[in-house]
């Protein structure tokens, strides 16, 4: 295990603060970093850890800031803006890189840098937060049960006590990007708001709609299955919604409108500091693999509150990576295995197959608490 400290960038944000608190509670002393000296100093003082002010617009400053750390965890969204400079700096500084992104371009950037990461002796692992890790572990799991699968559907359904600015800004990027699925190994345009399906979850049925998240890259990368559809339970699937998405998308393409919306998001979320409510509320994941013969395997995961799970997963991924000799670009499940999700605490998994017993859900794994 490296003797160097690790850095948390974006520590001043809502999710970054939860990760910092989880890390310190787990015995770590990360270096907190970000753009806001006021927020960083307050958090660092409260947690008793060091901090650094680093502007991602200054490449030399990023590299210098990473020279003496073993790993950097990027928690500053939107990640389509922050990941590129941070990944490049990590390669030059030769320190591991992880983030909690769920955006397609971030996984593409990491994959494109695979050879460079191997040469630098570091690992690049985007998506170690709730959204991607849950679906990625399930995708890896169902694909292992059906090795000849050609179709994969997956979804992460988070219960969130609050929503941070980074997540909401990322949603803007997804709307602008438009719908997308993976077909025959290639990303393919898909009309946003179409293709809804009904899926039974442990707590009831949900309507899921295709959405262009990082799962389209991560699931394909982790399983090799050529046809992948990522779904969301938060996207309406009505004719009116489809028209609305088209109008909103055109509006958000204008930089002035996007900046206005992002500033509104920041004002609405900047004072949200209370810890997430986790009692009796659950988040879920779902994945389904099928082969050319029509055989199907489905699995579900149940976890606690989404942001709390992200903090726990990020810290555990950091611990696993620092203790490993991984080199290159990976997804969470490709790096740590399909059962990595169980390392954070209270997680249950169900599996259903056509030839299984009458009960649709068959519990196969569980643990204590997040």
Descriptive account of the structure:
The protein has two domains: 6-129 and 307-338, Rossmann fold, CATH 3.40.50; 130-306 and 345-352, Dihydrodipicolinate Reductase, domain 2. It is an alpha/beta fold and 370 residues long. The protein is built from 13 helices and 17 strands. The protein has helices spanning 14-25, 37-47, 59-66, 79-93, 104-112, 114-120, 130-145, 165-177, 215-223, 239-252, 255-269, 306-322, 332-336, and strands at 6-9, 31-34, 51-53, 71-74, 96-99, 123-125, 149-157, 180-183, 186-189, 197-201, 204-210, 227-232, 283-291, 296-303, 328-329, 348-352, 362-365.
Uncertain ranges: 354-370
Q: Which structural class fits the helix and strand makeup?
A: alpha/beta
Q: Give the H and E element order.
A: EHEHEHEHEHHEHEHEEEEHEHHEEHEHEE
Name the CATH class of the largest domain: Alpha Beta
Which range best describes the helical content: under 10%, 10-25%, 25-40%, 40-55%, 55-70% or over 70%?
40-55%
Which key phrases capture this entry?
single chain; Rossmann fold; globular; 41% helix; seven-stranded parallel sheet; Dihydrodipicolinate Reductase, domain 2; 370 residues; alpha/beta; 17 strands
């Amino acid at each position: 295990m490296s003797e160097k400290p690790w850095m948390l960038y974006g520590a001043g944000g809502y999710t970054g603060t939860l990760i910092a608190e989880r890390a310190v509670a787990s015995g770590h002393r990360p270096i907190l970093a970000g753009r806001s000296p006021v927020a960083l100093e307050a958090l660092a003082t409260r947690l008793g850890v060091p901090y650094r002010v680093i502007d991602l617009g200054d490449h030399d400053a990023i590299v210098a800031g990473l020279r003496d750390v073993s790993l950097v965890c990027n928690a500053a969204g939107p990640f389509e803006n922050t990941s590129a400079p941070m990944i490049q700096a990590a390669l030059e500084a030769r320190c591991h890189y992880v983030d909690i992104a769920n955006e397609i371009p971030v996984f593409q950037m990491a994959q494109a840098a695979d050879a460079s990461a191997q040469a630098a002796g570091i690992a690049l692992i985007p998506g170690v937060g709730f959204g991607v890790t849950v679906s990625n572990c399930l995708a890896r799991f169902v694909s292992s049960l059906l090795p000849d699968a050609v179709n994969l559907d997956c979804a992460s359904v988070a219960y969130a006590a609050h929503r941070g600015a980074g997540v909401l800004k990322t949603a803007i990027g997804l709307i602008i990007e438009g719908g997308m699925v993976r077909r025959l190994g290639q990303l393919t345009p898909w009309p946003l708001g179409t293709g809804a399906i009904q899926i039974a979850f442990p707590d009831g049925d949900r309507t899921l709609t295709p959405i262009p998240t990082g799962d389209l890259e991560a699931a394909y990368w982790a399983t090799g299955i050529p046809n992948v559809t990522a779904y969301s339970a938060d996207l309406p699937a009505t004719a009116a919604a489809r028209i609305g998405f088209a109008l909103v998308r055109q509006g958000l393409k204008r930089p002035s409108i996007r900046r206005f919306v992002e500033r509104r998001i920041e004002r609405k979320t900047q004072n949200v500091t209370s810890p997430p409510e986790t009692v009796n509320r659950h988040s879920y994941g779902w994945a389904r693999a099928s082969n050319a013969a029509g055989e199907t395997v489905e699995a579900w995961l149940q976890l606690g509150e989404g942001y709390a799970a992200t903090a726990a997963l990020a810290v555990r991924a950091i611990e696993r990576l620092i203790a490993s000799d991984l080199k290159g670009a990976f997804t969470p499940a490709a790096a740590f295995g399909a059962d990595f999700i169980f390392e954070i605490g209270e997680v249950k998994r169900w599996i259903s197959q056509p030839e299984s017993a009458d009960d649709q859900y068959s519990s196969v794994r569980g643990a204590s608490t997040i």
